[in-house]
Amino acid sequence: MARTLTEIKNSMTTEFMLNEKMQTEYGLDPAVSFEDQFSIVSFESVFFGVLALIAWTIENIFEAHKSEVTTLITEQKVPNLNWYRNLALSFQLGFDYDALTRAFVNGSATPDEIENSKIIKYCAVNRNIVQNDVLISMKIATEADGEIVPIADDIKTAFEEFIERAQAAGDNVVIVNFLPDILLLKYKIAYNPLVLSGDGMSLLTGEYPVNNTIQKFLKNLPFNGELSVQSLNEAIKATEGVNDIQELSVESKWIVPGVGYGQFQPIDISRIPRSGYYKIEDWSQIEYIIYEPQE
Questions:
Q1: Any alpha helices (H) in 98-208, and if so which ranges?
Q2: Which residue, of 2, 197, 214, 290, is most buried by count of CB atoms within 10 Å of its CB?
Q3: What's the pTM value of the predicted model, to 2 decimals?
Q4: Would you state the pLDDT for residue 158?
Q5: Where does residue 183 rank: exposed (0-12), middle (13-18), buried (19+ CB within 10 A)?
Q6: Distance CA 160, CA 173 (A)
């Protein structure tokens, strides 16, 4: 913010009064103010007043220029898919949003309070054409107890209001906040009986290495990332205690708006989850067998 005329003139007269040469030339007492030693109509007072006016004019010109440039930058941002993703991740639960300045009204909130209010932890944005209409699909999720989960309905209402205010005019943004796609795996695992038990448990640690491998594989998938059946098979086959595998089927089902979960559909090569992420609820279709190759 530009300084006032008084502030500028005072900064000049203060430096003038502290200058030892000026003190000697004028016989000034540095403990007494400039106004008490120079008349308001004196040459020195008028001179500093003119300089202050010039400086004030320049500062206001630069301030106006800065404001104009800031406005132009703000108004000329061209939203793209990455811009919308960053927009979603910037959402602050419980804070008002100013559409004019494109910023949340944080007031006296601390940095920790601001950071904790950003509850959207995952987001993927895609552009789709449906019946000649261009839709921007925004898949979102948060995190609870180390798992990816959808946000609650009341939070979704607040998020939708935020997107409505912040989105570019004319854009049609569809918020996808679904429960996870359910993954159903059917495998026969030829296991090493020296390492694993008949139900896949490690004889050394008591854990289930194949289950752990699959969970790690899913966790390492990017949000809205493509699940490759071949890559999943390779990960399972590389698990300690696994001699070989037979993939019987890999299927998934997802939320159908207004209906709920649909039927399981086979994944032949790969699939991107409709919700953005997968979850396994049933591990019983993974069978462990002792297999001896035929001659």
A1: 111-116, 153-166
A2: 214
A3: 0.68
A4: 95
A5: buried
A6: 9
